[in-house]
Amino acid sequence: MADLGAILTAMVTPFGPDGRVDTDGAVRLMHHLVEHGSDGLVIAGSTGEAATLTDEEHIGLIRLAVQELGGRHTVVAGVGSNDTRHAVELTEQATAAGADALLSVTPYYVKPNRRGLIAHFTAVAAATDRPIILYNIPGRTGLDMPNDLCAELAQIDGIEAIKQARDTDVALIDGLDLYAGNDDMLADVLDLGGAGGILVASHLVGEQMRAMVDNPARRREIDASLHDVYEALSVTVNPIPVKAALNLCGLPAGGLRLPLVEADEAELDVVRSMLERHGLLEAAAA
User: Fold this and answer.
1) Which of 5, 38, 100, 127 could covalently link to 9 via disulfide, CB atoms 3.0 to 4.6 Å apart?
2) Over the stretch 142-162, which tens digit does the pLDDT of each residue have?
3) Which DSSP string corresponds to 2-62?
């Protein structure tokens, strides 16, 4: 598998005051992230509010990222759906747009059985010549893919990695690069010999998370120093807190699309306090 990088930020989708995608803000944020520790970006994933994007917006953002970053930084396109036909269509369109790899989430809500999952991912992988990263996130999909199933999926041509976002039984699987799917898993995954993480906190502390890759001797020390960042960004459902943090730091994020709503005052206080502790508001004001 091509080296996609270790620190991949699951980028938020900036929206303007009118609720439309803020393409200028997206470009600014893309460059900010790759200049502050990210090897590449995941575009139009769950943190990017893909569920509320039209297909035109979705593919447009991927095309924009390839235009801005292609050839220098990795562009991973979110292409998940609980409808296999739609997932295949998104996969084909993202491939045509120039994405380096594709992130495909376990079909949510419908909870297919094992044979259905194998058929789904076989169809997705057949729709592209780019590597597929499986995304196992039972907390959102209602379905956990056990390691033995993931090992079976690894035998499908083109399925080359997994973003693992469950709390237990995280392990290396033959044939799959392992990426941490939660920020607080990064140190553990790196210690296991995993490839890195697909992360949210790297919007704010990307350079520190990069240092966890580059300086294994300090990995646990750095990780401990970031626990309050992980906690603050989990004060309510993602991406509400990280968008609030970016807005407080003067970076483009904008609002959210329903059914997600803005952080309330208590949640904002948690986020603001974390930013103050880490000097991030001072850095933004400088």
Assistant:
1) 38
2) 999 999 999 999 999 999 999
3) ----SEEEE----B-TTSSB-HHHHHHHHHHHHTTT-SEEEESSTTTTGGGS-HHHHHHHH
